[in-house]
Amino acid sequence: MTRTEAPVTPPVVLTIAGSDSGGGAGIQADLKTIEAGGAFGTSAITSVTAQNTTGVESTHVLPTDEIAAQCGAVRSDFDVAAIKTGMLATSDVIDIATDAVRNSDAPAVVDPVMVASSGDRLLEPAAEAAYEDLIAESTLVTPNADEAEVLTDIEVTDSARAQQAAEQLVEMGADAALVKGGHVPGDDIVDVLATGDSIETVRHTRVDTEATHGSGCTLSAAIATRLAHGDDLTVAVRTGIDLLARAVRYNLDVGEGPGAVHHMVAARDQAERDPTAERVAEVVRQFVRRDVSRLVPEVGLNVVGATPYAEVPTECAAVEGRITRTLDGVAANRGVRFGASTNVARFLLAAREFDSDLRFAVNCRVDDEIEAALDALDGTVAEYDPANRPPEAEGQTVEWAATQAFEASDTTPVAIAGRAGVGWEPTVVVLAPDSATLADRTIGLLDAVTDEE
User: Fold this and answer.
1) C-alpha to C-alpha distance for 215 and 17, rounded to whole angstroms
2) Total Cβ atoms within 10 A of residue 268
3) CA angle 37-272-314, nearest 5°?
């Protein structure tokens, strides 16, 4: 007996761009990002580059007839829901891309690729002027600071100048312009989005890395994918920027150069949610069987697990209502869900800023016997004193505490203990890279306390 098919119909995105033999940028980055975002990626390859993470060795532009034929073949068969352009190289190729966008009702994201992350020039100077017509047809143009200067003659040195450049690009005919701030110095990256009606800025903390190969391609492809799904432009831009920030932080350490952004980071993170929640649930079951009531603080004990690429507490699994003492042991008040912990999850995320391998944590009470038993743990136990918290850390006590402990330790602590403070119960947070180690460390602490008593 044959099985009945169950086809799905994802939106289709067409990318018109160059090929990157190194796999981190260009068509390769676009297709990975599009597929990760739940759309179907199609392509028209404009050029073939011999490149890797260290630079571009050579570039070969395909015959324009072949590029036009690729665009025509895709558009004649697929209902294209969004178009994005990348490396176009020559004015003739830009004209082909302009025609493809002009003859389609789909939104178009134009990434005016002119210079590679390595500094290699990817666009003939004579072709720069040809971009004006393509920009005029675009839904969104996404230059970095260097590209915005080429297109507008405005040197982008801060967000005010970025706004001027973005507004000028809209005046050139684009529905909207996103001038990216990655090349502008500063602790924060400030991206400026201009439309005919408004100016918005999106700010996020800069990641200390040179592994940004493919960042522009990934961002523009992510935005095009969200537009293909029907998202509002502003929502699509903010979603794309959030994805890129995570893709840069959790970059791919491949090649001899700086590496590439992680195009699939959101999909990989999503795939880890159920396994992470199950690992938390297994630790909870072990704690209930062993009766860890001796370690349960007044506020209750919680087990928290972060997905590999977690950035916020809603991406951490924990026990709803925590684990509390009962007449005959301990019990989890409710089940495991994402976003069920605030303080312990924030503590774990702050610790991950120093060691991204840390994924699990549990908060335990501290008294004289437990403090003495901490020596039994297999590693460094760091400390912090809430009394030393500066006024500017108000509202960020958890992050401040983790930072104090890590900065005072030569190695990653296995646990971080805090003294009592105003409104602050003394606790120790046990940390681990995996759930089995977390359970072993916590139960080991319980055994040591029992031996002491």
Assistant:
1) 14
2) 15
3) 85
pLDDT at 10: 97
- Report the alpha-carbon distance of residue 129 to residue 125 in Å, rounded: 8
Q: How confident is the model at residue 55 (pLDDT cuts 50, 70, 90)?
A: confident
Half-sphere exposure of 434 (CA within 13 A, CB side): 3
User: How far is 409 from 427, CA to CA, in rounded Å?
Assistant: 18
How far is 45 from 141, CA to CA, in rounded Å?
Answer: 20
Q: What is the pLDDT of residues 253-284, one digit of tens each?
A: 999 999 999 999 999 999 999 999 999 999 99
Task: Say which CATH architecture domain 12-270 belongs to.
Answer: 3-Layer(aba) Sandwich (3.40)
pTM equals 0.90
- What's the Cα-to-Cα distance from 388 to each of 403, 404, 417, rounded to whole Å? 13, 10, 14
Q: Give the CA count within 13 Å in the CB-facing half-sphere of 303.
A: 34
Residue keyed to tokens 């209930």: 288
Instruction: Tell me how far apart the terminal alpha carbons of the chain are, to the nearest angstrom.
Output: 67
CATH architecture assigned to 272-452: 3-Layer(aba) Sandwich (3.40)
Partners of 265 in the beta sheet?
A: none
The rounded radius of gyration (Å) of the Cα atoms in the chain is 26
pLDDT for 407-449, tens place per residue? 989 999 999 998 765 455 788 999 999 999 999 999 999 999 9
- Amino acid occupying residue 128: E
pLDDT for 386 beyond 90: no
CA distance 427 to 297: 7
Cα-based torsion angle of the residue sequence 422, 428, 433, 438 in order, rounded to the nearest 10 degrees: -140
Give the CA dihedral 255, 21, 223, 313, nearest 10 degrees.
Answer: -20
Q: Are strands 360-365 and 303-306 parallel, antiparallel or unpaired?
A: antiparallel
**Alpha-carbon torsion angle 158, 164, 166, 171, nearest 10:** -170
Domain ranges of the chain: 12-270, 272-452
How confident is the model over 297-315, as pLDDT tens digits? 999 999 999 999 999 999 9
- Which element (helix H / strand E) includes 240? helix 233-249
Pick from 341, 358, 444: which is nearest to 406 by CA? Answer: 358
Q: How far is CA 350 from CA 205, 358, 432, 433, in A?
A: 14, 10, 14, 14
Going by C-alpha positions, the residue among 434, 372, 439, 361 that lies closest to residue 401 is: 361
